[in-house]
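Summary of Year 1 activities. Much of the first year was spent building the evaluation harness for sequence design. The harness presents a backbone, in tokenized form, and records the residue chosen at every position. We chose the following record to illustrate the format because it has been used consistently in internal testing since the harness was completed.
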């Protein structure tokens, strides 16, 4: 089995790396010392569609949960469904970070923060995330920040 870890991932806290190594998962991009820019260049040189060559980074869903939290399929499914819904609204760079049992903290890149306040969009988000079991839905005013669940409190 192989994963898509690359050199750019080494600059962030990745607790899952140990599990990948223990399971014998290979990381061809790491072995080739390739970063995201190298991978995109390779994809373009192979004439892969832009949907692949320019695909935004999408970290493992575990990065949406607090460290030390027991992981269940239902938790990951809730976060995935929440992000899938946000992406369907045009919020492509979104992350939904889960705190406790019922707080969803939405992170968006700067340009998408403006889109979020569009008429009716925040109401639709609140409605859908409540259906998914979130009682508190917040918008992180700092926006999207890679590895934000790794920051000390």
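For this record, the design step produced the sequence shown next.
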């Amino acid at each position: 089995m192989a994963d898509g870890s690359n050199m750019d991932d080494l600059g962030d806290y990745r607790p899952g790396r140990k599990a990948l190594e223990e399971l014998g998962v290979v990381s061809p991009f790491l072995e080739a010392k390739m970063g995201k820019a190298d991978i995109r260049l390779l994809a373009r040189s192979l004439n892969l569609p832009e949907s692949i060559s320019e695909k935004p980074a999408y970290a493992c869903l575990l990065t949406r949960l607090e460290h030390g939290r027991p992981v269940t399929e239902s938790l990951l499914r809730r976060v995935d469904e929440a992000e899938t819904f946000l992406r369907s609204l045009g919020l492509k760079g979104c992350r939904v970070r889960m705190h406790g049992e019922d707080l969803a903290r939405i992170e968006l890149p700067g340009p998408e923060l403006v889109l979020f306040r569009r008429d009716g969009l925040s109401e639709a988000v609140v409605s859908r995330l409540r259906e998914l079991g979130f009682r508190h839905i917040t918008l992180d005013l700092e926006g999207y920040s890679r590895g934000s669940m790794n920051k000390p409190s």
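The mean pLDDT is 88. Quantitative recovery figures across the full test set are reported in Table 2.
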